Prior knowledge:
- The complex is a heterodimer.
- Chain A is α+β, with helices and mostly antiparallel strands.
- Chain A contains 17 helices and 21 strands.
- Chain A has helices spanning 2-19, 22-33, 40-45, 71-82, 92-95, 97-107, 120-129, 186-191, 204-214, 228-240, 255-266, 282-291, 304-315, 317-328, 331-338, 343-362, 368-383; strands at 133-139, 152-158, 170-176, 195-203, 219-224, 246-248, 295-301, 409-417, 420-432, 445-457, 460-473, 485-495, 509-523, 529-541, 549-562, 567-574, 577-578, 583-584, 586-597, 600-611, 614-626.
- In chain A, α2 packs antiparallel against α4 (71-82), α10 crosses α11 and α11 packs parallel to α12 (282-291).
- The two termini of chain A are 49 Å apart.
- Chain B is mainly α.
- Chain B has helices spanning 2-18, 40-48, 74-82, 84-93, 97-105, 110-122, 124-127, 135-147.
- The radius of gyration of chain B is 15 Å and the shape is globular.
- The interface between A and B is large, with 42 and 42 residues.
Amino acid sequence: MKSVVLLFSVLFSTSIFAQAPSSAEFYIEKAQQLKLASNVTWQRLMYANVSGQSEVTYRPFFYSEHGQTQLKQELDANIAALFIPAEANQSIQCRFPARSKWLIGQLNIASNQLPKASCPELDEWLGQIKPYKATLIYATDFMGNPSSMFGHTLLRLDPKDQKQLNLVSYAVNYAATVANSDSFSFAWKGLTGQYPGEYSLMPYYRKVKEYGDLESRDLWEYELALTPEETKTMVEHIWELKHVQFPYYFISDNCAYRLLGLIDLVRPEVNLQKQFKTAAIPVETIKAVDENHLIAESVYRPALETQLLAQAKQHGQALAAAAHQVAQLEPAQMQDYLSRYALVDQARILEMAYDHVYLQLIAQKIAAEDAQPRIRQLLGLRSQIDLEKQRQVVEAPKVDPVKGHHARTIQLEAGEVQGDTYFRLSHRQAYHDLIDPQGGFRLGTQLKFLDGSLEYRDDRLKLQELNVLEVNAYSPLTAFKTPLSWGFNMGWQQEALNRDGAFSEQDQHGVFNLSSQFGYSVADQERQHLCYAQLQNHIQAGKALDRGWRVGLGPTVGCQNIWSEHINSLVQVELPYWEDSHQWQVRLNTQLQYLFNQQHALRLHWQYQQQKGKDWDQTGLSYIHFF
Amino acid sequence: MLKKIALAAVLAVGSTVTFADNDVGCGIGSQIWAGQSGKVAKILAGTTNGLFANQLFGITFGTLGCSGTGTVTAQAVTFTNENAEALARDMAVGEGESLNVLAELLNIQSGDKARFFEVSKQNFAKIYSAENQDALQVLASLQAVMATDSVLKAYV
Lengths: 627, 156
């Protein structure tokens, strides 16, 4: 096929008009008059960048020899190609159906003027997908993997009136193709666009299994308010991208950014991509889609683990504990163990036990040969109980992620520190903090990227802190598992230190700080209150420190509480033992927040530190805006 | 019956490679199948791997709703294979999204679905018996059970 394309390209580039029938010339002229080459849809079909050249490097994407750099020439070559008879599947109408359709429509070319295009491959492909509706799928954030900490988006293509069959709809995924051997260089390559990004197509159930079962990520499905015709054009354009690769950047040119481009293509009046040139956080891109009134409906699809926890909440801890127990038994002992429970409770226990064993199996916590007989027995016993399903539909969280707070913040703060008045201006690039409005986010996750503040005090302005990256995943213990709660932060901050590195009540000096913490957390079943206890270590480096560095180690505990729709709080205590001074230090951080709505809030702060009888005390009030 | 399903699966695998897939299984007699049972494992392994390199755009299963009754489509085999856990979970309680999808893929009329759900639950132990090691065997057992039911036998 490539050779045919090359042949075409050569023909057109050398003697384009001589070869084409006269009507092609007429339409090339017409395209010139209509200025189609500068039309936004042509530019988008061609992936034109700011300098008017295509981002696509895949040669067969173009008909003109210099198509990548000369989009006007490419347009002419495409029009000419429309008039050239071709073998089955080789016509431009088969290879670039969206492009062809647009050109034919804009130029108003009657179908009898064009050679008949026979496209069995494309027809078959479209016939299988039957695109009628497109649904944007959001897989919520997952701290277990650096590339999915901000969540992921993909697109599902649904046929008409087949809502019950969404699992067998096709999903379009844009992702980086990563060689398995890359582990250490993964983040760097991902940030610098060294992986190729490609579209792929698969049944949606594979994605549900991958995200919902394997990674315990809830899915949100946003049906797009596109017409069937727009949806079809979008799918035809995806066909054009077969074999096309773009450099994949985790932060900017990622899955979410590319999917916005598909929407932009069929809606020339919107420009969703424009807002996300520097960074495209998946959930933020969906908010932009929503703001353009492009979401018709949203559906919540809870992960399997979410379903299991909902059952535990619904049936009570005692039955959940029994389910955990029965899942450990040999298949032959299960019936005997269950007989002490009423029939309905047996059904509940069996349903939870199955979900639990299956989750353990896919997490590779138990071997398949141990799991299979148990699974069979649990389900077999359940099937013999003549009661309907005891699992209830999991209620969707009150706040849809699309309605949650934005990732960027600006914060103004005033207060008193060690008897002095201070003012602070803070800004964060992304994404979510424990004290932030929790609606639309998973309780116990924290991901802060480029979070800094400037402080004005005593006629001096100074950088108070600059967090480069802070990640914390507090996964509460459940009746079924005891996950580790872990985190780290890396940044620069002011510490209450004098010039000699001793704790000070007057001075502050800047240090680079690297902390990490590991431990456990607990939460209530409603997931409104979460507390943790961890062991934490700090490594700090700075000129003021005695040897230029110091190490601290100690426990840390904290609680994150949602008291009402408008009020939440955070209390954190750290107790590091500093090896340079051989002293324990108490560090307390408390914040109380009142939400006007998800994007505006007031906060009361109190920070207190004490070391060897000296202390550092700071109270403040701030206003924070998310945007 | 198993042969019929196996044939559908063979065609299903072929389709992941060639990008093309028609209403396989529909209206094709079982006599074409030559009883090469050793291929079953290969077939099932094949249905899960259609996604690499030049196959990124591969269509993995046949069309929905092939006309007529009495045969298992490639899509039903693929779906049963890749969703075994969710299907078993649904079957054991006699309802659920995955089981409903399977009912659709087997062309069960909406009026007969409740019956299908009930029968598959009652016979769960037979359908997901320890001897049934893959989707083809599971589907064959399901069809064997359906064949003994006065209503569902029309779909076998």
